Amino acid sequence: MKFVAFERAKQGTGASRRLRNTGKTPGIIYGGEGQPQLIELDHNALWHALKKEAFHSTILDMELAGQTAKVLLRDVQVHPFKPLVLHIDFQRVDARTKLHMKVPLHYSNAEESQAVKHDNCVVNHVMSEVDISCLPADLPEFIDVDLSGMKKGMSLHLNDIKLPKGVTAVTRGKPNPVLVSVVTIGGEEVAEPGAADAAAVAAAPVVAEAKAPAAKGGDAKAPAGKAGDAKAADAKAAPAKASAAKKK
Q1: Which of 182, 206, 191 is nearest to 123 (CA)?
Q2: How far apart are CA 115 and CA 109, in angstroms?
């Protein structure tokens, strides 16, 4: 990709703020044999360029003062909530010096794999980019990873993929990290035919036994009811007995 930059004379917080107010973005170029150089770019053009993946992972042609130089995007500072690029850094590229940068991984053909088509699984992307080291001439825009051979229970590691010629992976911590894992979805076991009927038959005696004590309990309440009726009858008869005693 190619973009245009302009020389910037003033530096500092105030100068950068005034530059942004005019629709420009301050930046810097460093590395290589030259000295660090202050630059400015058109903000709108830069904003649209940053949305392209190639702008982040490929060698760029920067036109500055009538000359073209090879550079790499190294850092971007963006406003926390405004669509505003605050500052941008580029590094000069030396054809004889190896580069160390991150390159995106492009996964393909997952829907054609046995894990997705027949095993009701999901292919989970653990890593979306990988650190590599190579000469500028060998720098790939992305690394394509074919997932058509994924099966249930499989995991794809870094050592399982073929890197482009002249490219070596740079790993930290785990020497062979996982790139992709296959995850089973659904989680519910499918019942065998007739299993529901068998379960219903097995549960029937338990239900019958559970109801039986309840019925006995109902019978047990009957005497209590009769006793209550007897007490009520005695209460009604008590005034009559008291009247008879007064007459005597």
Answers
A1: 182
A2: 11
The structure tokens listed for 120 are 């009701």
User: pLDDT tens digits for 78-104?
Assistant: 999 999 999 999 999 999 999 999 999
Strand intervals (E) in 8-152: 24-30, 37-42, 60-64, 67-78, 85-92, 99-108, 121-125, 129-134, 143-146
**pLDDT at residue number 92:** 94
Q: How far is CA 111 from the centre of its chain?
A: 19
DSSP 148-202: TT--TT-EEEGGGSPPPTT-EE--SSSSS-EEEEEEE---PPPPPTTHHHHHHHH
Tokens of 168: 């070596």
pTM of the predicted model as reported, rounded to 2 decimal places:
0.68
* Region 146-150 average pLDDT: 94
